[in-house]
Protein 1
Amino acid sequence: MQGLVCIGKYSQEDIETYKKICSNVIFLDMNIDPIHECCILLDFKNAVKDAVSYLSQKHTSIAYLGGKEIIHDKLYHDQRKEYFEHYCKKYNIDYSISEETFSIESGFNMTYELIKNKKLPSAIFAASDPIAIGAMRALKQYDIKIPEDISIIGFDNIETTNYTDPPLTTVFAPTFDMGFMAARQLFDAFKHNENISPIKILLPCFLIERNSCI
């Protein structure tokens, strides 16, 4: 096998297994620190900074709705949550954090808990669009208007976000470009008959403003 592109999260044992299979391995959407493999990631730091900064113009309380990823019984560290906490503190924003899975159902459940416990903030930052869509469904069920009563931002920019009610403000994640970059790295390695060097590549994300925020 000349090249291997691994998408998602893997344990160190998995990484070692893949390296035995192939000398040219690239990991997409997995932060490897310290850098000892080639990995291509999204720039979560500036993506979250842009989202929190955008919300901070009108809001002083934000809830983070995220998901947990478990790799061989170990919790994978999600940088989005880390940066969310950092920038909320920087902008003096009251915040809360809820985590389940990256699903519509979890988005609904986490938002329902906020409503039930009377802890609903004036804005929500969801770590994925499915979570945001679930949150919107819960808000609508309890007659909480978006964006009049609460603003919400998602993450990914899946096609469905154009057709939610209202259309969802979200962070565009260039997943296609991640794959293209991996293919180019492999092509260059094959062309020059070289192995891929350990390197971390960050791709920028962009806030897409629609109608779910004021």
Protein 2
Amino acid sequence: MRTRIRRGVAVALALSALTLTAACGGSSDKGGDGPAEDKGGDKPAASAPLTAAQMKAGVLAVADLPKGWTAGKNPADDSAYKADKPECQPIATLLQSKVAGATIGANEDFVGGNGANQLTHQIMTFPGTGAADFVSPIGPALEKCTGFKVTMEGVPAELKVEKLSAPKAGEESHGVRVSMDLGGAMEFALHVVVARQGTGVSRLVYLPGTPAAAKDLDDLAQRAGDKFVKAARG
């Protein structure tokens, strides 16, 4: 039983590795497609990527968070996930650490709830319409995808997908809950909120230690979205 629990936690940490390999900042990563609200119109016109200063200004710091949160360091993971259902691939890609065409400008990790809760906030930017290309597929995917299977560290895993009603931010945004049954009454659930403003993207990943802690997502997402949008517009 203990081995099973530890394996589930390891998978949860691997998924929360939206901390990305870019924790050292500013590098260009290659790797996936990704998420948010489908506006149903043409893609935005290409414009200049965010500057390093804008991305640094847009990421959360401990001072921006409620009492009890401290700086942390979550494990990174370079895995690429392929969903067994094509309609779910944008969500599987959302869980990947590497992002095709993105320049990662800021990545911060935090722990709260006496170490039980994990939070990662990341800002990235793209040339041209890359931000919209990364964000827009999540909308249609959330309408069709309720779950999918992937292989993680050589082990098959079945994930459940739910749409979250997280606070809106920027020009388009989405909330996604990805969970996995660990057996019995146990499960882990990642809460991901992605927002786009111009050529910039904010990706917030919250791994609550208890079901009760999940209620804090809205407040955390609001703080992250407001700071990101202000910096991106600046």
